[in-house]
Amino acid sequence: MKKTNMGTKAIWAGEKDSLAFGATQVPVVHSVSFGYEDMDEWYEVAIGNKKGHIYGRNTNPTVEAFEEKIRILEKAEHATSFSTGMAAISNTLGTYLFPGDRVVSIKDTYGGTNKIFTEFLPKQNVEVCLCDTGDHEAIEAEVAKGCKVLYLETPTNPTVKITDIERMAKAGKAVGAIVIVDNTFATPINQNPLDLGADLVIHSATKFLGGHADALGGALVGAKELVEPVYHYREINGATLDPMAAYLLLRGMKTLSLRIERQNDNAMKVAEYLQTVDWVDDVFYPGLETHTHHDIAKEQMSGFGGMLSFSVKGGVDTVRHLLPKLQFANRAANLGAVETIVGPSRTTSHVECTPEERAAMGIPEGLIRYSAGIEDIEDLIGDLEQAFHALPKELYTNA
Ligand SMILES: *Cc1c(COP(=O)(O)O)cnc(C)c1O
């Protein structure tokens, strides 16, 4: 799938209505409320007949510019935003799932999302069915039994499994389900789930959209009819995006296209390099021909993303030695930043899960998640080379 003009859109889209004072950059409007001299105008804005802002928990000009930019990048009719990615997910599911409803999803969703499915929704008598990720027949069979929501994430965290969005959206539509896709890993530069038939797209803006690991945020885009009820749920429940965070995310998004191009490239080259390393057992990256669903990824993505993972001989012990030796990588529970970030899944994406739960998801305890930054590729590969070279040999022999 070929994309055009995404770089231009990332820079210019969505900002015009929020500019003020002739400034060329969207101002950070910290005002909690917005005043009106004219009581009738106030009323018209309050009931939504006239554009404007009333109170910061509902809307804000800086936040609105962020929403507009992600709306245009995902080619959606409507958008709303949240304080975090998890707020986007929990508010969306909270809007649409009630006692007695059924939701179908996959086992490999983000750790926090998985907790909503396994801990919170069952307590509210929502029936949750989690299928093996990438087992399209199993998902179709469960969806065919009927469900209110089909919730997908592709590529997944941390083993970058791929689900065929178009095929799953068709299955969801056939039973009248709302099809939701967490597009955090791909970003709108690499994948537009709405074009493939999804109804709603969720982002943790904290990751690639912001890209600088300095602001939390979430977004939801789709048809107005579906996004507005979630906006209403959020404005009442209060998981509002802060204007300062919205500004940082907006600024980050200006370079989204540039960053993603570089991260796609760096991740591919790191994955190819890792395949040649004796210490490495498995490399998971949708861009590799060895990936189970490389063909689907090639079809629905215009780039394979900045995320990969790999498992090492010697398991946790090797991880313990390897990661501290890297010079150009943060060891942190985050991803999608300009800096390369590494971490074991057991302390990052799936820290909420027990070792047994992780094993059931096919996540070895010695798996390393690698979020490629925008550094020079020679330095990233050189860094990995020196780290592998310095590993104690007995770890290898004992493996
Ligand atoms: C990080 C992440 C989330 C949660 O986002 P927060 O902004 O941390 O709340 C959801 N989905 C995916 C795929 C993520 O990587």
TrEMBL record:
<dbReference type="GO" id="GO:0030170">
    <property type="term" value="F:pyridoxal phosphate binding"/>
</dbReference>
<dbReference type="Pfam" id="PF01053">
    <property type="entry name" value="Cys_Met_Meta_PP"/>
</dbReference>
<protein>
    <recommendedName>
        <fullName>homocysteine desulfhydrase</fullName>
        <ecNumber>4.4.1.2</ecNumber>
    </recommendedName>
</protein>
<dbReference type="GO" id="GO:0047982">
    <property type="term" value="F:homocysteine desulfhydrase activity"/>
</dbReference>
<feature type="modified residue" description="N6-(pyridoxal phosphate)lysine">
    <location>
        <position position="207"/>
    </location>
</feature>
<dbReference type="GO" id="GO:0018826">
    <property type="term" value="F:methionine gamma-lyase activity"/>
</dbReference>
<dbReference type="InterPro" id="IPR015421">
    <property type="entry name" value="PyrdxlP-dep_Trfase_major"/>
</dbReference>
<dbReference type="InterPro" id="IPR015424">
    <property type="entry name" value="PyrdxlP-dep_Trfase"/>
</dbReference>
<dbReference type="InterPro" id="IPR000277">
    <property type="entry name" value="Cys/Met-Metab_PyrdxlP-dep_enz"/>
</dbReference>
<dbReference type="GO" id="GO:0019346">
    <property type="term" value="P:transsulfuration"/>
</dbReference>
<keyword id="KW-0663">Pyridoxal phosphate</keyword>
<dbReference type="InterPro" id="IPR015422">
    <property type="entry name" value="PyrdxlP-dep_Trfase_small"/>
</dbReference>
<comment type="similarity">
    <text>Belongs to the trans-sulfuration enzymes family.</text>
</comment>
<dbReference type="GO" id="GO:0005737">
    <property type="term" value="C:cytoplasm"/>
</dbReference>
